[in-house]
Amino acid sequence: MSGVTGTETSGHLSFMKKLLIILGAVLVMLVVAIPVTTRILGPRLIYVSAPAGKPLGEVDVPRPETSLLAVSIGIELATLAALANEKVPPEFEGAEQKDFHKNLKRGGYAWKVARGPIAFQNNGTQLTFAAPIQGAAQFQGTLDAKIVQIPLNTTAELAGVAGGSLSPSIAPDWSITPNLTPALNLSQASLSLGSLGKLDVSDILGGSVGQYIQQEAQKLAPALRQSIDLRSQVELLWREAYLSEQVNDSPKIWLSVTPREVQLSPIEYTNPEELTVTAAIKTDAFLTNREPGDPQPQPLPDLVAQPGPLSTDLKLPVIASIAELNEVLAKESFEIDTGAGTSVEIDGLEAAVGQGGLLNLKLSLNASQSGPARGIAGDIWIQARPVIDFDEQTLGFTEVDFSLETKSKLTSVAAWLLEELLIKAIEREMRVDLDDYKEELSEEIHKAIDSAELPEGIQVSVEDLDIQLYDIYTITRPYPEAAESAGLVIVIRATGNLATRVGQSGPDIP
Questions:
Q1: In the chain, fewer beta carbons within 10 Å around the N or the C end?
Q2: Full-prediction pTM beyond 0.90?
Q3: Is there a single domain that holds both residue 101 and residue 201?
Q4: 3-class secondary structure for 81-143?
Q5: Segments forming the whole domain that contains residue 467
Q6: Omega into 251 within 30° of 0, i.e. cis?
Q7: How many CA atoms within 13 Å lie on the side-chain side of 13?
């Protein structure tokens, strides 16, 4: 084997050196090219500054909210019966001088009857009452038998039912008119006149006994007024409706509630076991930074009659600071499909009060499009008006638009991100759940009722309680004298039936 000459060795080394240099250059190019390629093919990063302008709410301070606190007062028929049996005497009697037959002279009669228990019935349109009666009537006179004058002194047994109907009405001055119509039905009332046979004296006695029963039945009126002591019960609620409750510590804010009028529904006969009337106190609620001190209730006003049923309809304003709202928004994320081959992931929501009722919303987005176009990622700002989606009971947004700063940035880096489609997608799909506010209020309402100190004989219950988000708007300051501190007001609506039942002992009203 022949040896390698020096010239060959030198050429071989030269070739290896060149190869190493080339490989090294390629490696360097690869190392440099990797991040460069990532920057070219990955999403562009954008950061948009917040919109300029001083934050101004839709209104300067929270609006007063008008509410109805309706209380349905049920008076059991058993209570009415107990009072009626107490007020109406168990026996009554009367007498009258009257010729009760054409052949009778110097006639007259006296009667005495005893009643059984008085019972009430609700027939769906009015109340009826009835009590069995039993007694006797003594008839006297001189019977002209043509040939001879025969003295008459005889007794007729009486039996039947005394009763009538009640259709109470309540006047604006709170007085109650029973509209009582008494009735008497005598099933037994006949008198023996010897040779003249028997005489039906039900008509004769019916007028006399009926007139007396009508007089005695009027004693049901005060019993009815006592059982439907509507004025005293509503007066308790009227005084309680003056409310001043601190709802925030820093800054100190009070919720002040002032009653304005009392409304009254027609008397209802829907429950066969009771008579029902509903009174509603109309109130205004607003927020203040000053403790009003002891409220000075005004006298109970006259009633304002309403043509139909009334139910509780409370509207309570709740100040939600931007910090509180952002705690909720921080938990939300959305994936939006614009329908134009563009996919947008949104999270990192953050809100600030804008101007004219709008919120400025920062969105952290990651947008991509099918095809060679580069995506974008980063923070942008939109402006939108907060609204309540009543069907879904969530916070949504309308009048959505990009801020001027965002429009400028997107135009330069992502012309493919179609502005109109993205905005419509945000309006359609960006929803925020605010259930916590409703749950807290529901708990507080039930807690207040459970812990309430009520007069003896009154029981209160809440039926069909429904808590809803009702309204949302921005404010410049939390109360008139406060420094500007823009925020959000969420109005909660609570509806339902607040019912009371009056027991037989009746309320102990001071």
A1: N
A2: no
A3: yes
A4: HHHHHHHCCCEEEEEEECCCCCCEEEEEEEEEEEECCCEEEECCCCEEEEEEEEEEEEEEEEE
A5: 65-73+229-322+436-502
A6: yes
A7: 7
Specify the pLDDT at position 122: 94
Q: State both tokens at 4.
A: 């390698």
Instruction: Return the exposure string of 236-259: e unless at least 16 CB atoms fall within 10 Å of the residue's CB, then b.
Output: bbbeebbebeeebeeeebbbbbbb
Is residue 373 in a domain? no
CA-atom Rg of the chain in angstroms: 44
Domain boundary among 151, 186, 218: 218
Contacts of 425 (CB under 8 A, 6+ apart): 336, 337, 338, 339, 344
Please give the structure tokens belonging to residue 194.
């010897």
Backbone angles phi, psi at 331, to 5 degrees: -85, -5
Render pLDDT for 410-424 as a digit per residue (tens, 0 to 9): 777 766 666 777 788
Residue 407 lies in a domain: no
Task: For 168-179, write each residue's pLDDT tens digit.
Answer: 888 898 888 888
DSSP state of 393: T
Please indicate, yes or no, whether residues 208 and 256 belong to a single structural domain of this protein: no
Residues 246, 143, single domain; the answer is: no
DSSP class per residue in 2-27: PPPPHHHHHHHHHHHHHHHHHHHHHH
Considering the domain boundaries, does residue 429 fall inside one?
no
Which pLDDT tens digit goes with each residue over 238-266? 887 887 777 767 667 777 788 999 999 99
d(CA 461, CA 207): 47
Q: Of 68, 78, 84, nearest to 121 (Cα)?
A: 78
Buried b (16+ CB within 10 A) or exposed e, 485-509: bbbbbbbbbbbbbbbbbbeeebbee
Per the CB < 8 A criterion, the answer to whether 253 and 291 are in contact is no
SS3 175: coil
Whether 146 and 111 map to the same domain: the answer is: yes
One domain for residues 101 and 205: yes
Q: Which residues contact 21 (CB under 8 A, 6 or more apart)?
A: none
